[in-house]
Amino acid sequence: MQVDDQVWRQVLQRDVMLQGPRLPAAVLFDMDGLLVDTEPLWFMAESTVMARMGVQWEPADQSALIGGPMSRAVAYMIDRAGGGHDALEVARSLKSEMASLLAEGPIDWMPGARELVVSLRQAGIPRALVSASGRDLVNHVLAMVFAEVGDDVFDLSVAGDEVEHTKPHPAPYLEAAAKLGVSARHCVVLEDSQTGVTSGLAAGCHVVAVPHGPSDAGPIVVAELGPELEEAARQRLSTVRSLHDLTVETLADLFGGNRGQNVESRGSEGRP
Questions:
Q1: Among all residues, which ones are annotated catalytic?
Q2: 3-state secondary structure of 38
Q3: Handedness of CA 62, 64, 67, 69 (dihedral sign)
């Protein structure tokens, strides 16, 4: 007996509502420090701008800014320099330095990132790049990524200057999910910073954190997420040592077989 397509869709929809999808509806990638290793470039750009303001930039300064938007970085830098600098000019200088460094290339992938995004494409799982960086810098990175693995490796991207509120606000991830036509609660977010993890959890996504370790941003501190997100973190936050620990199969395990539970971290927190 032939079953009408609409009936099948209703059956599948009911299955998803009762059990949840067996795979993520989409995987949403952070950019800096998660997809590509741009943090050393940011340090160089920030150091150059701060040197013009007569201040020596330290690794601890950069650690305070990882995952955050340009506005927060500029405010911090001006405060570090003792004030008296124009925020727009500092932002222009920082973006200009970073763009120059990106243009020099090549940019290194973070461990496991290239393999993961390609395997997700092969599996047909939608992918988006969601960054706190501005569109011009995102496009620099995308040009490198597209040249290496094809321009269909991401279905779309969301830049920090394209949303009213950027990370740690949930808006960037909600925007990406909406543009993909999926529910944020059926997405997995991949992040490397406290700021990004906060954004992903607040959006209702499952989050896999790949923290840098003590030499950089440090491990994700659940207590610092705030009381509203602490319970969400217990249910929807996992930690891995690198993206080498993630495959389509482990994401299925995270999202389907261990739904509502925190998947045990595959290794200690920090760089491999």
A1: 30, 32
A2: coil
A3: negative
| pLDDT tens readout for residues 55-110 | 999 988 988 887 777 888 899 999 999 999 999 999 999 989 988 898 887 889 99
Task: Calculate the alpha carbon distances from 250 to 67, 245, 258 in Å.
Answer: 25, 8, 10
Q: Which residues pair with 129 in a beta bridge?
A: 29, 157
Residues 6+ apart with CB under 8 A from 20: 186, 255, 256, 259
Predicted structure pTM score: 0.79
Nearest-CA neighbor of 188 among 22, 25, 13? 25
Beta partners for residue 27, in sequence order:
127, 188
Pairing of strands 206-209, 26-29: unpaired
Per DSSP (E only), the strands in 30-153 are 127-130
Measured distance CA(40)–CA(46) in Å, rounded: 10
- Rounded CA-CA distance 25/70 in Å is 30
